[in-house]
Structures are given as C-alpha cells and as structure tokens.
Write a structure and sequence with these properties.
This protein has about 170 residues and is of the alpha+beta class. It folds into 2 domains: about 5-90, Winged helix-like DNA-binding domain superfamily/Winged helix DNA-binding domain (Arc Repressor Mutant, subunit A); about 100-165. Helix content is about 55%, strand content about 15%. It has 7 helices and 6 strands. The strands form 2 sheets. A 3-stranded antiparallel beta sheet has the order 1-3-2. Strands 5-4-6 form a 3-stranded antiparallel beta sheet. Helix 1 (about 5-15) crosses helix 5 (about 85-115). The chain starts with a helix and ends with a helix. The model has no long low-confidence stretch (mean pLDDT about 90).
Length: about 170
C-alpha cells in the first residue's frame, strides 16, 4: 500500500496513540519494502542501531512489523530484517479508536449518573458515596465539600466523542 497524505496522517495518529511518534521515519522508510535490515535502517536514517531497535520493538508490540532473523556468517550475529504492514497499522488504529470511543461513552454515563462533590481548594473530587463516608469533608485539607455540576464535563466529553466518531 502506497503512503499517500491520508494514510500518512493516520499512521502519525496511530504513532501518537501508541506513544512512538519517533518511529515515523522508520515507517516511511520501510513502508513499501520487505525485509529491510535494521543496520540499513540505522544507516539511512542516521540514527544508532539501538535507537532503531527500540523504535521497532515498540511497533512489534502492536504487531505492526514482522521480522526475519538470519545469522551473519562472518561475525556469527543475528541480523533482523523488518517489514512494516500498513494495512495492519490502519486496522490497529481503528481498534484503538473503538476502545477510546467506548471508554468515552462509559465516562459520559458515569458522569451523568453520579453526583460529585469537590473541595473548594480543588484538592479532591469524589462521588456521593465517598463524600458521605467522609462526612462531606475533604480528605486532603479538611474543608467542607460542595456539590458540583458536571454539565461542562459531560459537554466536553460529548464533543470529544463526536470528534472521534467523525474521524472514522
């Protein structure tokens, strides 16, 4: 699969999700190639072999890359040849988005169905049951807790949810 602007932006989004934005240069280099040596990647991108391995291993944790291991006959070391899978990466992005959407929906329900109390000093935010157990006093500073309207939080969560759903 060729890397067009749309695919590149989705891959960047995925890398942000899996906290590995630095790996984009590796992805771009290996996207349309098969079995690229980790030494060739390091040489081409002018980074150390250890940096390449760390970034590739992060991608491997999400099954975005596969490797073939061959033994170097001169030195006796194993050399890994990596292949990046664009389709798998886009699939993983969809799965992660789905999980995030479900998490937001659950958080919205929790916000709608729970009464929260907050410390005037902004130390803590607790639900009704926890506030009742502590006699409506802050666990941190001892001030009396006040009821909180969570309309803004629900609105912000709904906005984030709509944004995520519209990007699918």
């Amino acid at each position: 699969m060729k890397l067009n602007q749309e695919v590149e932006s989705k891959l960047k989004e995925l890398l942000v999700e899996i906290e590995s934005e630095e790996a984009f240069s590796i992805i771009k280099f290996t996207a349309n190639k098969r079995n690229v040596s980790e030494f060739k990647i390091a040489d081409k991108l002018q980074i150390s072999i250890n940096q390449v391995r760390n970034l590739i291993y992060k991608l491997n944790n999400y099954n975005l890359v596969t490797y073939v291991r061959k033994k170097d006959k001169k030195k006796g070391w194993f050399i890994y040849y990596w292949t990046f899978h664009v389709k798998e990466a886009l699939s993983v992005l969809n799965v992660l988005k789905g999980r995030k959407i479900e998490g937001l929906k659950q958080k919205i329900e929790d916000e709608k169905n729970t009464t929260f109390f907050v410390c005037p000093g902004k130390c803590t935010r607790v639900d009704f049951e926890t506030a009742l157990e502590n006699n409506f006093k802050c666990l941190e500073c001892g001030k009396v807790l006040k009821g909180e309207s969570n309309v803004k939080e629900v609105g912000a969560l709904n906005k984030e949810l709509k944004t995520l759903e519209n990007t699918n």
